[in-house]
Write a structure and sequence with these properties.
This protein has seven helices and eight strands. The chain is an alpha+beta fold and 274 residues long. The chain has two domains: 2-120, de novo design (two linked rop proteins) (Up-down Bundle); 135-272, RutC-like (60s Ribosomal Protein L30, Chain: A). The chain has a six-stranded mixed β-sheet with strand order 1-2-3-8-6-7. A two-stranded antiparallel sheet has the order 4-5.
Length: 274
Amino acid sequence: MQNELRERTKTFAKEVVLLCRQLPENREGKVIGYQLLKSATSIAANYREASRARSEAEFIAKLGIVESEADETMLWLEMIDEMEITRKEKMKELIRENDEIIAMIVSSIRTVKNKIKSAELRIPNSTIPISQSKNPKSKIVESSRAPEPVGLYPHARRVGNLLFLSGVGPRERGTKKIPGVELDGKGRILSYDIETQCHSVFKNVRAILEDAGSDWNQIVDVTVFLTNMKKDFQTYNRVYAEYFKDNRPCRTTVEVNALPTPIAIELKVIATIE
């Protein structure tokens, strides 16, 4: 995991260097380019230092710097994208990669903190942490990043070493906006982009997994619901392959007439958890 992320942050920094070379030579381009170059390269440099940390506390501190630099990098990338200074396709790739790096860093910080907390809360002469001994059978998980449930159910529930996610779609938390969906005044779908929805739903699944203490590579089973199999399967299948090229869980894809909100895709996921 550390070696993989070290290479990803370095590759990301190199891509940003190439992007900065394409920015206009006017005052605005130079200012934004300098700030972006500084923060993006700092991500790689500080993660490299974090991987050589001498203690868990030092590791968490360094990762905190990486997270901060990645957040700043996201600001400059979004500005360049919104101002259409350079190719939009490339900007979307960089923004998505930066978003995934942030998610992985946040997950790493949480994992180490939980490890420290569990060690501090162990019962004398026992290997069972107090946090797990209270209710070893089942535990509800609520994510602060995933969209709010539309009914009386949690984002996920842990049972033993398995994590069961409720159905999740591409909606965004705290807003009625649905990525890739255009609605009329009555909330009916005018048009939608299945690829954008796929990226958004995978982002939501990742957030729930990480907030629960699991991660993407621990997914073992996926059920996918599409509202238009004939039109959307090919695109969804291609995007799915991008996300699951290293982890190949079992998968079932079914077509449904409609979903509870005006979306075209929903996922039901099962993952393992330590």
